[in-house]
Design goal:
Elements: H1 16-29, E1 35-36, H2 51-61, H3 76-87, E2 99-102, H4 105-115, E3 121-126, H5 130-140, E4 146-150, E5 156-157, H6 159-168, E6 172-178, H7 190-202, E7 206-210, H8 226-229, E8 235-240, E9 253-258, H9 264-278, H10 285-295, H11 299-322, E10 328-330, E11 338-343, H12 359-368, H13 374-386, E12 388-389, E13 391-392, E14 402-406, H14 412-431
Parallel strand pairs: 1-12, 3-4, 3-6, 6-7, 7-8
Antiparallel strand pairs: 2-9, 4-5, 8-9, 10-11, 11-14, 13-14
């Protein structure tokens, strides 16, 4: 073509959680049975939606209004309901005009970063969730800016690292916090979050809190919503129903905006997001109609509590199996449904291997492990030898070596055997060379 039409940041659009699927499918074609531990889809792993939630959604499909367009920002009654939930808490108050719906948080993230000036950077955690890190890097055309999470401190944010980077890099306009965190399962307590808000206040930044897992907290952890601590700082909370109902296929998420009237430049940015959404007309209507009926149902709190207990039990089970393994560090998750297994420094090398019974799988493995990071090399070996598909930590915009598993498998026997197989594979791999 006479002009290069490729955006400068296109090379940053990577998503290891899905990309490893292509490798796994190749092993499957070669006769390896795959256990999918790579993606956070409760439905795929066998979770059943409660009948009462299904009944609400089925009834909505019988109403003609659910087949039509809705307001660009979202259904007014639903935004009123959600604003009311925020305003029940102590802290910042919002109106329905401070809420904007998207077709899932992936859509919201893409539009938020796409609407920023290229020079305005948002610093996020490392390990990072790929949707955020890739979108931020793509909008800027540079590698994603990150602050460190400290594994030996429960994967808490390194507050000194955050402040030093903010202080000496004036391109940083915002801070991203994922709480509870994906991929580590960490939950940040109030005092840590308040210190992050204080940094944002002192350096005049906006904050972006991904709260998609905010109602999946367990193992004695407690946290707070952004609205409770944001004060006068410009802020955006990202919420959705994909992990809570759960209904990931609904592609229904929204943002709650705080203090836009106090910050004119921030308000203009939010207005630009609304105008951008207008070009699409609106987000999908049916899931929005369901929110007041489901979240407002007296059974909903009971539903959330039952799921918390379930993930707590699984997190303890996984931790008890994997944490005693020499050569790795495992912090017990406190939220979401993920756990990161971190290899100790220096234990990995390129001579290590797992015994592969399938000769064709072994031959294919040799073609894909030559120049990959050491943790990805283990992940590929695990795929070829055991058919277990996990995600390497280096795929989460991270220099630390390890991998992420999920707590989603509903088959108790299969779930436990999978984690035992992973533990045995780590031992064999580290002992092989």
């Amino acid at each position: 073509m006479r002009r290069n039409i490729l955006h400068e940041g296109s090379g940053q659009l990577t998503y290891e959680i899905r990309e490893i699927v292509a490798v796994a499918h190749r092993f499957k074609e070669l006769g390896v049975d795959i256990t999918w531990e790579n993606i956070g889809d409760p439905i795929e792993k066998g979770e059943a939606i409660p009948a009462w939630i299904k009944d609400i959604i089925v009834d909505l499909t019988k109403q003609d209004k659910t087949y039509g367009y809705v307001a660009t920002q979202g259904i007014l009654q639903t935004r009123q309901f959600l604003a009311g939930k925020v305003n029940e808490r102590e802290g910042a108050k919002i109106t329905p005009d401070d809420i904007l719906f998207f077709n899932g948080l992936g859509d919201a993230v893409a539009r938020i970063f796409g609407g920023l000036k290229r020079e305005a950077r948002v610093m996020g955690p490392s390990p990072a969730y790929s949707t955020h890190s890739s979108a931020e890097a793509a909008h800027s055309g540079y590698d994603h800016l990150t602050y460190e999470l400290l594994p030996k401190n429960g994967w808490m944010p390194d507050l000194e690292d955050i402040e030093n980077k903010v202080k000496y890099n004036d391109s940083i306009a915002g801070l991203l916090i994922i709480n509870p965190d994906n991929p580590t399962g960490a939950v940040y307590p109030r005092d840590v979050l308040e210190k992050i808000i204080d940094i944002a206040r002192r350096y005049d930044l906006f904050v972006m809190f991904d709260e998609i897992y905010t109602h999946i907290v367990y193992n004695g952890a407690e946290t707070v919503h952004l609205s409770e601590i944001v004060g006068d700082v410009a802020g955006i909370a990202l919420r959705g129903i994909s992990k809570e109902y759960p209904w990931p296929g609904s592609r229904c998420g929204w943002i709650e905006v705080y203090n836009q009237d106090r910050h004119p430049a921030f308000k203009n940015f939010v207005t630009s997001l609304i105008h951008s959404k207008m070009l699409e007309v609106c987000s999908t209507s049916l899931p929005q109609y369901s929110i007041p009926l489901v979240m407002g149902n007296k059974k909903y709190i009971e539903h959330l509590n039952a799921r918390k207990k379930l993930f707590e039990q699984r997190s303890i089970e996984a931790w008890e199996i994997l944490s005693p393994v020499d050569g790795v560090f495992v912090s017990k998750p406190q939220g979401a449904f993920y756990m990161s297994v971190l290899f100790d420094d220096g234990v990995l090398n390129k001579k290590q291997f797992l015994e592969i019974e399938n000769a064709k799988a072994g031959q294919y493995l040799d073609t894909i492990t030559e120049s990959v990071p050491d943790d990805k090399r283990f992940v590929y070996n695990l795929l070829a030898a055991k058919g277990i598909c996990v995600v390497p930590l280096t795929g989460f915009c991270c220099n630390k070596k390890g991998f992420r598993i999920t707590l989603l498998e509903t088959d108790d026997k299969k779930r436990k055997s999978t984690w035992i197989s992973i533990a045995e594979s780590i031992k064999a791999y580290l002992a092989s060379a």
